[in-house]
Amino acid sequence: MANFGEGWDVFCSVLFVLLALHDVRSFSPQTKRNVLLFVGDDAGFETQVYNNTVCKTPHLDALAKRSVVFKHAFTSVSSCSPSRSAILTGLPQHQNGMYGLENSVHHFVSFDGVRSLPVILKQSGIRTGIIGKKHVGPESVYQFDYSKTELDGFPIMQVGRNITLMKQFAHEFLSSTDPRPFLLYIGFHDPHRCGHTQPQYGQFCEKFGNGDPGMGKIPDWVPTTYDPGEVIVPGFVQDTPAARGDLAAQYTTISRLDQGIGLILKELELAGYTDDTLVLYTSDNGIPFPNGRTNLYDSGMAEPLLVSSPAHTERWGHESNAMASTVDLTPTVLDWFGIPYPDYTLNREAVRLTGQSLLPVLQREPSTGWDTVYASHNLHEVTMYYPMRVVRNRRYKLIHNMNNLAPFNIDQDFYISNTFQDLLNRTRSGQPTHWFKTLKDYYYRPQWELFDHQADPLETTNLAGDRRYASVLSDLKEQVLRWQNATNDPWICAPWGVLENSGLYKEKPTCMPMDNGL
Ligand SMILES: *[C@@H]1O[C@H](CO)[C@@H](O)[C@H](O)[C@H]1NC(C)=O
Ligand SMILES: *[C@@H]1O[C@H](CO)[C@@H](O)[C@H](O)[C@H]1NC(C)=O
Ligand SMILES: *[C@@H]1O[C@H](CO)[C@@H](O)[C@H](O)[C@H]1NC(C)=O
Ligand SMILES: *[C@@H]1O[C@H](CO)[C@@H](O)[C@H](O)[C@H]1NC(C)=O
């Protein structure tokens, strides 16, 4: 009997292992579970959902009533393509290789070996679609089954701002007879600036399709206009007529984005998917105003985030204080579908996700954890090398400006805007700027910036040199370095050392000092 018992045990163990293996290999995703992900372009908090009562966003407001609203969500990087790459891979830009913008002379792409969300999903039997702005490459890494983007030859104005056309494409995708569950990614180009590329339509393309002579018509759009006198000027923007004019134009395109969300949610409902689709709304980076986009101050890093799950109705309409990051979106979608993240290496280093699924937060407000996020920036345009690494917890933020001896750069799109020209003109002529900093301070930053958010939400007082915060500073420095190491950051020794990690140093990567005084 003992022998039989032993044999039986072994048999059972083998059977168990075989079953477990079988389980992984023949994994079939849960049916009737879909994802619809909306990404705004440079969108911020100009919605009633976040207490802005001037900008009209009835569709986002309605979505919020079916969502958990994250009050402390942050982008992993404040630049378009790098941010979209982080959303679609769960990896910070320095780990996935998308160091700057994808388009034109900037020409950044992720590493060929990156396993992106759409590709993992496709391999697991999920149908994938993208409509609107894509702005990530290479194509092989960011493949979607259904694709109507600027990289498929469609004008970005049409696929990203013409909400009638976007609705029609969504209808086409959603009426497919393909029985597989789906991920549909909608990349609005609203409310991005426009003065740099299509000035004939206004600073934010707010006139595009409004029916005025020469502007064309977007049949489903009912334009909402705003009086510059009524807009809410964020604390990090100068309160001047020029900036107010820009904000009013921005609001008009936010209202267009909002109506686009309404149209697409209606298509989802008509196709019968409302009750089995996880809907998410966020943005890629901060608003295109001074101290916003391309900065990792909170004005460039904090994002709207709504997560609406038909399977987690308990907390619909609630707010969460959990600190969330855009690198949490890939783990959230994988969790929703019950698909594991693959085991693999990039540039010979093991790849591990540092984000986590947001689904548990939809069930219960966490009492511990969810109190730290990280961010990482290298470039925006190819000329704008300004590497930064950031750790942000509930109270403090530490920014490491690794190239701080060079001036911070201004991108082409923002430079030509009325808001920035106004700052330049006023600074040049010695008039009051009505801004909370000087251009000189904006350009020339210290290597370390430490802010206490409790006392100083606008991040105006750098505490890095204050002895009373010495231990806070050293703890945060250590934390950001640990995260850089965990995410295989090639910049881990910058700006004072050279990383040696091959040959003699293969087993023990080491920062070798340059003696440059940093
Ligand atoms: C909006 O303001 C109310 C009242 O101050 C506050 O309780 C709430 O948390 C705010 N909501 C968001 C999303 O910031
Ligand atoms: C938007 O798309 C619709 C549908 O394709 C088209 O009829 C309309 O002319 C487009 N509007 C503009 C402003 O291009
Ligand atoms: C800035 O100054 C230039 C040159 O005087 C002028 O043409 C432009 O209109 C000004 N722009 C703003 C926004 O003040
Ligand atoms: C990263 O951490 C590993 C494991 O602790 C260590 O061996 C390695 O030297 C660290 N890399 C750097 C550049 O500090």
UniProtKB/TrEMBL annotation:
N-terminal signal peptide: 1-26
Database matches in InterPro entries: Alkaline_phosphatase_core_sf, Sulfatase_CS, Sulfatase_N
Keywords: Glycoprotein, Hydrolase, Signal
GO molecular function, one term: N-sulfoglucosamine sulfohydrolase activity
PROSITE patterns (UniProt xref): SULFATASE_1
Required cofactor names: Ca(2+)
GO biological process: glycosaminoglycan catabolic process; heparan sulfate proteoglycan catabolic process
Pfam families, sorted: Sulfatase
Gene3D superfamilies the record matches: Alkaline Phosphatase, subunit A
Domain of life of the native organism: Eukaryota
Domain Sulfatase N-terminal: 33-339
Family label: Belongs to the sulfatase family.
Name under which the protein is recorded: Sulfatase N-terminal domain-containing protein
Source organism (scientific name): Patiria miniata
Taxon lineage: Eukaryota, Metazoa, Echinodermata, Eleutherozoa, Asterozoa
